[in-house]
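To the structural biology subgroup,

Please find below the input and predicted structure for Sialate O-acetylesterase domain-containing protein, which we are adding to the shared reference set this quarter. The sequence is reproduced verbatim from the submission form. If anyone notices a discrepancy with their own records, reply to this email rather than editing the shared folder directly, so we keep one authoritative version.
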Amino acid sequence: MHLAERSNSGGKTLLATSLFLGLPFFAIVSLVASEFDQSQPVETVELAPLFTDSAVLQRDTELPIWGTAPSGSSVTIQFAGQTATAVADTDNRWETNLAPLEASSAGRPFIVESDAGQIILDNVVVGEVWLCSGQSNMEWPLKQDPRAEHLLAESDLPLVRQYKVKHNSLEEPSIDAEGTWVPCTPDTAGDFTAVGYYFARQLQPKLGVPVGIVNATWGGTKIQPWMSRQALKNFSEVADKWNRTLEELPTKQITYEKELEEYQSKVTEAKATGTKFNWRKYPKPPPGPATKFAPSGLFNGMIAPLVPYSISGILWYQGESNCGNANSYSRMFPSHIQELRRQWNSKNMPFYFVQLPNYEWTYDRTGIKWAKFREAQMEALTLPNVCAAIVIDGSTPNDGHPPDKEYVGTRLARLAEVRHYGITKGDATGPLCRSAKLNNGEVVLQFEEASSGLQDQAGSLTGFELAGPDGKFRPGGARIEGDQVVVFSQVVPEPSAVRYAWSNNPTSTLFNGDGLPASPFTMLVESSRSTGY
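Predicted structure (tokenized):
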């Protein structure tokens, strides 16, 4: 499908002008649309973006099939012995549904016939589809894995497939996106999201059906660009900040163009003289419309075109770019999840996210900003069917892009295996502290996700702290007693709060019997509700 061309510079001018006039951020879209809606006539039948050769269709659910065609033209879909029809409306849109299909690993043709043309897709299978979204650690490709040469050689997995959505930031929701389904082979696996690859590689043989991952990611992005206008409507501070950004854009654009000219001049000089030059210190364009910083821009350009393609659930790995704003994230993240579920009309769709890993953030003098952010992420667990993969036991805490993505992907897969598919027994994730009660001067902690027992994998339990009435946390001792952890300290005889692993780069000592690390937490003593999740 192809959207009508729009004047990009004109759209930016209209957007900036509207904001300068004081119009609300979320009123801009209608102005842009009315000013630049010069649609080209639709002459052929087209399918929505995710319907390509080698597509994976979601099993066991009604399948929406949609696209564009000349108004009034009929469209017939044929697949797996089913036939469905539709008629294009006055906006050239058509949509129909296939009845639920059983999983099938055999590639079959998917046929679209219309007065406006014919489309035949090859090698279409039916299985499980998961959306992988977020920033660079989710986008991080398998070819950057230190073991890439060995991994790629063993990646002949034709029933694992990826659809990579091209980066696109738009001012209004789109119906179009660029991408194609690609089966996993030694030649293609390198471009798969590494987290998604490990997730699918573990899940596919256990399910015995094709697994497709839709890779909608963009490095260095905050959550705001991934949120729809509907999800952001209660966060006026986002619009206010973006308005100020656009007001500053003309000045910053002039500065950027000057810096870019100077950079290009230095490049030319370095090439001519053969002198050393730091190529990476190139100037970056300022935030503005059609950039990855625009609120709702990535939702409009990379998520909206995927709806309502049937999927099983969503995997999310994002937050590094929002770290430092834990309070706002704790409110925006649940809103984002609920809106995605509303878009797919599935209020309990599985949503599994990666809690930020252990990281030695040298620029954080407090040493706890990532701890606070993990706490903000865990607020989303109040929503049904939302789960966290705990990964604070990583081996490369000095790297903001930890190269070991296998344990991240497999822990997400375990969440799906236990919680969604029921094919694996035991705990879905690491121990989650649910209560802290005072008993003779000691604090007794109870945990969920510890049916496999609690274990000390470091030789001694460390990382536990207690605070008294003065609110100052001090290190405490800890021991495991059955399914409980008892925390104590002679210097805190009257503990009123307890916390664990409360730093950017904590040492994981408490695990469950399934080898999964306990989540960091902070909790009031004698309170049944944690402030950590």
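Summary notes: The longest strand covers residues 117-134. The chain has eleven helices and 24 strands.

Regards,
Lab coordination
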